[in-house]
């Protein structure tokens, strides 16, 4: 991935007008305020800035200057679990913003180029982000890689069915204790889904800031099963009479059915709550099946979760596992053309090849296929995959299939 074609020229062109460079840690607060401004939010107060200290990873923020800072983006290092369970180096991309009087003149594009060059140098295999809008990122090779649903439960009418396990114990932790203990707890938990990522101290600093700044108290409960802690939930309750009281789940992590059931048993039993709301949950999470009347759980949104950019396509393809006979895919990558080419993909591995391709697709469609969020045949129906050999789309459906839905679950 050395020497990304086009990168040198583009940076030189932009350098004549704008300076694009890595930010010094002393500039992180200005970058945070610039980004907040692009979201129409106020600057941080000193107290808020202090609460969020440590959330910007040094060396991972880039700025665009024309005398002053006018554009920025940053990333967090992490490891990404891919189908089959291996982990690859991931960049969690966030805080992308260009000041409103400098938009639509290519600044984000230059920031992205600089960021990809940095990723290539450091051997980052994939980059993931949560997008503010659906039209921004596919031009850079990001595709919707995980899907999610949000659901709401009417707690006044919901009842657990008789078969829901009742083992384990719930302990409520004070916020500061929780913020101290959760990182270790999360680290010890296996990644049960492809798409999950590790969380460094920088991520936890941002999570801590969000919890401390919440208008309603953030409550943490840990579930302990036979073998120790195996799940936790973080939630807040908004109770403004005469409106219905709503418990909003900020985090819900569990490693086995006992922890899933135990956490829901607790959450459904919290007093003075009318409704529980979740956001960005795995599409196959079976919360409604815990209930005697599944209709007390309503899916309120079904949507994208993350967008992923396979930065190093060969390394990404080689890292995951496959099912069924091999196929040759031709991948087209306009933004990072070194990735373009044909790949033979099978249970026994992945290699570049000169053999004729059975399917042709761009790197955006490949991201949609990679975690099993979308099937090749659906992508072909939507005109996003070109079928060059009869039956190839169905063969790719099997090849890329995954047992459980992929999901990230780590908002940043
Ligand atoms: C992961 C995250 O951080 S998500 C948060 C993203 N940030 C925001 O939503 C904050 C508000 N928006 C912004 O700050 C800016 O509009 C940005 C960062 C999204 C875009 O910055 P810009 O410097 O204007 O982008 P740039 O000029 O490089 O645009 C490149 C192309 O993308 C298009 N584009 C950029 N933003 C958008 C958008 N929001 N919707 C549609 N198209 C867009 C441009 O029109 C341009 O297209 P072209 O190449 O066909 O001319």
UniProtKB/TrEMBL annotation:
GO molecular function: aminoglycoside N-acetyltransferase activity
GO biological process: aminoglycoside antibiotic catabolic process
Active site: 137, 412
Keyword Disulfide bond listed: no
Parts of the chain that traverse the membrane: none
Domain of life: Bacteria
Binding positions (acetyl-CoA): 96-98, 104-109, 132-133
PROSITE patterns documented for this protein: GNAT
Domain N-acetyltransferase: 18-167
Organism: Amycolatopsis xylanica
Entry keywords, A to Z: Acyltransferase, Transferase
Name of the protein in its database record: Predicted acetyltransferase
Pfam families, per the entry: Acetyltransf_17, Acetyltransf_9, SCP2_2
Family the UniProt entry places it in: Belongs to the acetyltransferase Eis family.
Ubl conjugation found in the keyword field: no
Subunit composition and interactions: Homohexamer; trimer of dimers.
UniProt-listed InterPro entries: Acetyltransf_17, Acetyltransferase_Eis, Acyl_CoA_acyltransferase, Eis_dom, GNAT_dom, NAcTrfase_Eis, SCP2_sterol-bd_dom_sf
């Amino acid at each position: 991935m050395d020497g990304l074609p086009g990168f040198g020229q583009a940076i030189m062109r932009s350098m004549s007008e704008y300076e694009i460079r890595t930010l010094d840690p002393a500039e992180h607060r200005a970058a945070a305020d610039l980004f907040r401004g692009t979201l129409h939010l106020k600057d941080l107060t000193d107290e808020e800035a202090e609460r969020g200290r440590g959330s910007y990873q040094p060396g991972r923020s880039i700025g665009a200057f024309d005398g002053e800072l006018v554009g920025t983006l940053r990333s967090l290092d992490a490891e990404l679990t891919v189908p089959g369970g291996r982990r690859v180096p991931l960049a969690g991309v966030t805080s992308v913003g260009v000041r409103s009087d400098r938009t639509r003149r290519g600044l984000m594009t230059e920031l992205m180029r600089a960021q990809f060059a940095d990723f290539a140098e450091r051997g980052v295999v994939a980059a993931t982000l949560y997008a503010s809008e659906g039209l921004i990122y596919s031009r850079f090779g990001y595709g919707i890689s995980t899907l999610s649903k949000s659901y709401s439960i009417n707690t006044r009418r919901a009842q657990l069915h008789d078969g829901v396990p009742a083992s384990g114990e719930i302990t409520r932790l004070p916020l500061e204790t929780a913020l101290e203990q959760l990182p270790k707890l999360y680290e010890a938990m296996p990644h049960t889904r492809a798409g999950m990522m590790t969380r460094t101290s920088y991520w936890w600093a941002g999570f801590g800031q969000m919890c401390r700044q919440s208008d309603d108290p953030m409550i943490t409960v840990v579930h302990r099963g036979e073998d120790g802690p195996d799940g936790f939930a973080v939630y807040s309750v908004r109770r403004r009479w005469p409106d219905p009281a709503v418990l909003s789940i900020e985090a819900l992590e569990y490693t086995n059915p006992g922890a899933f059931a135990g956490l829901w048993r607790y959450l459904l039993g919290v007093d003075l709550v009318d409704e529980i709301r979740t956001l960005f949950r795995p599409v196959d999470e079976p919360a409604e099946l815990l209930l005697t009347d599944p209709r007390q759980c309503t899916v309120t949104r079904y949507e994208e979760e993350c967008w992923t950019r396979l930065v190093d396509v060969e390394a990404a393809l080689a890292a995951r596992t496959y099912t069924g006979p091999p196929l040759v895919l031709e991948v087209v990558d306009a933004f990072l053309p070194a990735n373009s080419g044909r790949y033979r993909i099978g249970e026994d591995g992945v290699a570049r090849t000169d053999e004729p391709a059975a399917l042709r697709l761009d790197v955006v469609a490949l991201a949609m296929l990679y975690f099993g969020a979308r099937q090749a045949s659906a992508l072909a129906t939507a005109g996003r995959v070109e079928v060059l050999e009869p039956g190839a789309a169905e063969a790719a459906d099997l090849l890329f299939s995954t047992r459980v839905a992929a999901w990230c679950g780590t908002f940043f």
